[in-house]
Automatic annotation (TrEMBL), chains A, B:
Gene name of this polypeptide: sulP
Pfam families hit by this protein: STAS, Sulfate_transp
Membrane topology label: Multi-pass membrane protein
Source species of the chain: Thioclava kandeliae
UniProt KW keywords: Membrane, Transmembrane, Transmembrane helix
Protein's UniProt name: Sulfate permease
PROSITE patterns: STAS
Length: 580, 580
C-alpha cells in the first residue's frame, strides 16, 4: 500500500521496528523529557499562558507527529519564536491571564493546524521558499533579542510590558524603581550559571575524563539543575514571602479535552497571524528536519511534513496546548541522544504525561526568574549578528533584506518585519531583472566559445553585432530590450546583422514577444538582419506557436558559432581581434 | 546648455523653428481643434463634470506639455480611460454635480501631476514596466466596454447609475420604462451615422475621387457634423421640450484660475486613485508617443515625459480642468495631419481658447445623446477581444492575466482589475522561476556545443553528469536545486563528477549561495566532484567575494567543452552516444 504509507509514514518504519531501535529510542526519550520539563514551562510563560499549557502542548502533538511526520528525529512542541508570535497575536485581542486568552491560543493552534494541513494536501509547501535565507536569519536574530528583552522583567522582578523593543525598554526603565533584589539575585546567578554550563561545563567535564556523549548529556541537564536548586532555595528560605514570583500551583492532570473558541470575529482576527505562524513554524521545522535527515542520508517530504505539523497543531488545539512546531534545540538533542524513529517522540510524550501527573506539585516554588533565565540563555544562542557582515560582503541587496527585517521586527513586531522583508526581497529581485545585463560577445580564439568583449580577448566582426541577453525576457524588462537595441544601433551605424544570443533567456512571455516583434520590424525597416542563437528547447517551443519565427528577418541558429560562421563567411578578411 | 534643454526640450526644437514647420503645425492644429471640441465636451460628461471642464483641461495642459514634453506629436488632454477613472475615484467620495465634485477633480489632477513630476525627477519611469502588455490590453478592452455601457443611459434618455458592469446593466434594466423615444431616436441614429463614418465614409470618398488625406480629414470631422445637425434639429424642433437632455448654458470664458481642495481627508482618499491614474495615464501616453516617434526615427525620453505630463496635470488643476494625459486618438490625428513640433499643440490651445470664448453659446442645444454616441463609437474602437485568443495560443499564464484583468475591471472597477492583474502577473512569474527547467546536456557531435539529451542526438559519459540550470538562482528556487541534485544522484549512483553549466544563471543571491555550499558539502561527503562551467562575468565577480570558490570540490571551467575535455580525458573509451 504505497499510497497509504505516503500519508502514514508510521506504516513504513513501524513494520521494521526492532529491539535495538526500541532501546535507543527509549534512552533518547528520557534525555529529551528531562530537558523539556523546564523548557515547556518557560515557553508557556513566554506565550502568556499558564505553565501546564507548555507541557500539554508537548504530549498530543508529539504523538500525532510520530504518526504523520516523515522526519526520524524531529521533536515537536512549543518553541521560542512561535511562543513569542502567539503572545503577540493574542495579546492584541484578549487580556493576558484570562480564560479567553487560553481559548484564543487553542483557536490559533486549530487555525494554524488546518492551514498547514491544507497546504500539505494541496502540495503548496513551496510557498515557504518565498522566505529568503536573509529574511529568516534576520527574523530569528531579531526574535532572539525581542524574547530575551521580554524576559528581563522576570529577572528584575518588575511588572513591565510592551510588544516591541522600544516599548519594552521604555517600560523597563520606567519600572526600575520596583526592582526586587532577591529575584534579581536569583535571575542573574541562574543566567550566569546557565551561560557557564553552555560554554565552560562541557570542556571541564571532558578534562575530568568523561566521554563526549556523557559530557553532552550532563550539559543539557544544566537547566534541570538550575530548576532544582532555585526551587529548593525558594522553598527552604521562603523567598516567595520576599516578593519572588513563583510558578504556583499547576494542575495534576493529563492533557484535558479542550474546545477552541470558534467565534467568527476571533477567527477573522487570528487568520493572518495563524498563516504567518504556520509558515514560519514550517520553515523552522523543515530546516531542522532536513539538516538532521541529511546527516543520515535520509530524505524528508516537505508536503508530508506539513500534514504532520498540521495534525500536531490540531491535536494541540483540543488538548489544552497552543501552536507548536519542530524545535531546533529539542530535535538536535533527540538526534544526538540516538533517537532512531518517531517512537522516541511517543516515549517522550509518555514521560511528559507522567511528569504532568506526578511532578507538577514539585514546581510550585519554582521562581519565574529561573524560567526567564532558561529562555534568555536559549534564545541568545539564536542571535547571529554575523549574518549582517556576511551579506554585506556578498550583496548589498541581501544585506538590505536582513537589516530591514531585523529593524522592523524589533521596532514593529514579527509580522510586519517578516512581511516587509519578503516584499522587499521580491521587489529587489524584480528590479534587478528589470535592467538585464546585456553583453556584447565575440569569439574566444581557438575555440567555438563566445564571451563578453570587455572581459576577454575575443574576435569580433564590424558588420555583426552579437548581444548575449543575460535574463529571461518578460513584461518587467520587455521595454528595456527594445530601448537598448535602438540606442545601440544609433551608436553603430555600420551593422548589417544583429544576433541575439538566447543562451541565458529561459522564458519569453507575451509582452516580451511583442517587444521582439517590434525590434524585428524596426530592423527590417533599416535593412538589418535579426537572428537568434542557442534558443533553449522550451523557449523555442513557445516561439513556434507565435508567428514571430515566420516573420523573423533572419535565422535561428543552433549554436552561436554556427551563426558566426554563416554571417561572417562572406567577409572573413574583415574580421579583426579586439578586447582588453 | 545641454542640461537645461534636457528639462526644457522647447529650447531644442524652438531654436530651429522655421516657416515650413509653422504652416504644417498650423494646419494640424486646425484639424485637431475641430475634432477636440465635441470630444472634450463628451469626456467631461463621462467624468461627471460640466462640459466646459473638458475644454479647459485641453488648454493649459497642452501649452505646458509643449514646453516640457519630448514627443513632437503627442496631444495632451482629457481621454476616455482617465475620465472614467476620475468619475470612479471621485464618485465614491463626493456627490456628482456638486461644487465639491469639481474641486475634488482639481485635487485629483494636482496629486496626479505632483506624482508624475516626482516619478520623473527621481527617474522612476520604469515602474510603468510592471504593467504587462496583457494587463494593459485587458484593462483597455474592459474600460471600453465599461465606458460604452455607462453612456447607454444618455442614448436611452434615462437616469440609470452604477459603477461596475453588473450594476449598470441592472440599473438600466430597472429604468427601461422611462425611455425617452425622441432621445433614443437621436442617440441611435447618431451612433449609426458615426459608425458608418468610421467604416464606410472614407472608402466612399476615395471612390468619389478625393485624395487620401482629404478623405481622412473629412472622416475625422464626422462627429462635428453630427453635433451640428443634432444641435440644429433640437433647436429648430424644440426637442428639449420633449425631454431630450441638452448641454445647456456653458460659461463663455477662458480657463478660470482655480484652487484645488487641499483638505487632508480628501487628499488621503484620493492618493491611491491618483497614483493609478498617473501610472495608467503615463503608460497610455508613452505608448502613443513611442509609436509615433519611431515612425519618424525620433526618440522620446520616458522620464522627461513624466515631467511633461506632471506639468500638464498641475496646469489642469489650477485652470478648471481634471486629470489629463496624452490621448491615442487625438495624437494620431495630430501626427497624421502633419504636426512637426509641439507648437502645433500651442496653436490647438489657442483654437480651443477661441472656442471657449466664442463658440460655447452654440452648444446650448447640443443633446447629451450626441455626445454619448461620440464616446461609444470612440471607445468601442479600443475593445480588442482578439487579445484573449492571441494570449491563449501563446501562453496560458498571459491568457490568465488578460482574463482576470478584464473580468475584475468589469465586475469590480479599474483599480481592482489592474491591481489584481499586476499582482497575478508577478506571482505567476515568480512561481515559474521557483521550479527552474534543468536540462541534462551532452555534446553535439562534431561541435563544441552542448544540448539537452532528450531533444538532441548528443554524446554523454557515464561518470559525468552535466546539468544546465535554466534560471537565475535566488531564494525562491534555492531549495529546489538542492532537492533536485539529491534526487538525481540517488537515481544515478555511478556518477563521479557533476558539472553545473551556468550559461543561463544570470545571478546567484545569498540564499542560493548557501544552497550551493550545501550541495558542495554533500557531494564532497560522497566523494563526487562539483564543477561549474560558463559562469558569466557578473556572477563570477560575486562568487569570488564569497568563500565558495576556494571551498569548491572541483573547478570552474571557462567553457563546457573545456570541462568535458578535462573530466572525460582519463576515460575516453567509455564515452557512448545517446539521445533519441
Amino acid at each position: 500500500m504505497p499510497s497509504l504509507s505516503r500519508y502514514l509514514p508510521i506504516l513504513d518504519w513501524g513494520r521494521r521496528y526492532d529491539r535495538d531501535a526500541f532501546s535507543n529510542d527509549l534512552i533518547a526519550a528520557l534525555i529529551v523529557t528531562i530537558m523539556l520539563i523546564p523548557q515547556s514551562l518557560a515557553y508557556a510563560m513566554l506565550a502568556g499562558l499558564p505553565p501546564e499549557a507548555g507541557i500539554y502542548a508537548s504530549i498530543a502533538p508529539i504523538l500525532l507527529y510520530a504518526i504523520f511526520g516523515t522526519s526520524r528525529a524531529l521533536a515537536v512542541g512549543p518553541v521560542a519564536v512561535v511562543s513569542l508570535m502567539t503572545a503577540a497575536a493574542i495579546g492584541q485581542i484578549v487580556q493576558t491571564g484570562t480564560a479567553g486568552y487560553a481559548a484564543a491560543a487553542l483557536t490559533l493552534a486549530l487555525l494554524s493546524g488546518l492551514m498547514l494541513l491544507a497546504l500539505g494536501l494541496f502540495r503548496l509547501g513551496f510557498i515557504a521558499n518565498f522566505l529568503s535565507h536573509p529574511v529568516i536569519a534576520g527574523f530569528i536574530t531579531a526574535s532572539g533579542l525581542l524574547i530575551a528583552t521580554s524576559q528581563l522583567k522576570h529577572i528584575l522582578g518588575i511588572k513591565a510590558g510592551g510588544a516591541t523593543l522600544p516599548e519594552m525598554v521604555v517600560s523597563i526603565i520606567g519600572h526600575l524603581g520596583q526592582i526586587n533584589p532577591v529575584t534579581l539575585a536569583i535571575g542573574v546567578l541562574t543566567t550566569a550559571f546557565l551561560f557557564w554550563v553552555r560554554k565552560g561545563l562541557k570542556p571541564m567535564l571532558r578534562r575530568l575524563g568523561l566521554g563526549p556523549r556523557m559530557a553532552d548529556i550532563l550539559t543539557k541537564a544544566g537547566p534541570v539543575a538550575a530548576v532544582v536548586v532555585t526551587t529548593g532555595l525558594t522553598w527552604g528560605l521562603g523567598l516567595n514571602a520576599h516578593g519572588v514570583a513563583i510558578v504556583g500551583s499547576v494542575p495534576q492532570s493529563l492533557p484535558p479535552l479542550t474546545l477552541p473558541d470558534l467565534s467568527p470575529e476571533l477567527i477573522g482576527q487570528l487568520l493572518l497571524p495563524a498563516l504567518l505562524i504556520s509558515i514560519i513554524g514550517f520553515v523552522e521545522s523543515v530546516s531542522v528536519a532536513q539538516t538532521l535527515a541529511a546527516k543520515k542520508r535520509q530524505r524528508i517530504s516537505p508536503d508530508q511534513e506539513l500534514i504532520g505539523l498540521g495534525a500536531a497543531n490540531i491535536g494541540a488545539a483540543f488538548t489544552g496546548g497552543y501552536p507548536v512546531t519542530g524545535g531546533f534545540a529539542r530535535s538536535v538533542v533527540n538526534f544526538d541522544a540516538g533517537a532512531e524513529t518517531p517512537a522516541a517522540g511517543a516515549f517522550t510524550a509518555i514521560g511528559l504525561g507522567i511528569a504532568a501527573i506526578a511532578l507538577t506539585p514539585l514546581v510550585y516554588f519554582l521562581p519565574d526568574a529561573t524560567l526567564a533565565a532558561t529562555i534568555i540563555v536559549a534564545v541568545l544562542g539564536l542571535v547571529d549578528i554575523s549574518i549582517l557582515k556576511k551579506t554585506w560582503a556578498y550583496s548589498r541587496k541581501d544585506f538590505a533584506a536582513v537589516l530591514v527585517t531585523i529593524v522592523l521586527t524589533l521596532a514593529a513586531g514579527v509580522e510586519i518585519g517578516v512581511a516587509t522583508g519578503v516584499i522587499l526581497s521580491i521587489v529587489m529581485h524584480l528590479l534587478h531583472t528589470s535592467r538585464p545585463h546585456i553583453a556584447e560577445v565575440g569569439l574566444v580564439p581557438g575555440t567555438e566559445h563566445f564571451r563578453n568583449i570587455h572581459r576577454h580577448e575575443v574576435i569580433t566582426h564590424p558588420d555583426l553585432l552579437t548581444l548575449r541577453i543575460d535574463e529571461s525576457l518578460y513584461f518587467v524588462n520587455a521595454r528595456f530590450l527594445d530601448d537598448y537595441i535602438q540606442d545601440r544601433l544609433t551608436r553603430a551605424p555600420r551593422i548589417r546583422n544583429v544576433v541575439l544570443m538566447f543562451s541565458a533567456v529561459n522564458s519569453v512571455d507575451f509582452s516580451a514577444l511583442e517587444s521582439l516583434e517590434a525590434i524585428n520590424h524596426l530592423l527590417k525597416d533599416r535593412n538589418i538582419g535579426l537572428h537568434l542563437s542557442e534558443v533553449k528547447g522550451p523557449v523555442m517551443d513557445r516561439l513556434k506557436t507565435a508567428h514571430f519565427l515566420s516573420e523573423l528577418n533572419g535565422q535561428v541558429f543552433l549554436s552561436q558559432y554556427h551563426a558566426w560562421q554563416m554571417l561572417t563567411r562572406q567577409n572573413m578578411e574583415r574580421i579583426c581581434p579586439t578586447g582588453s
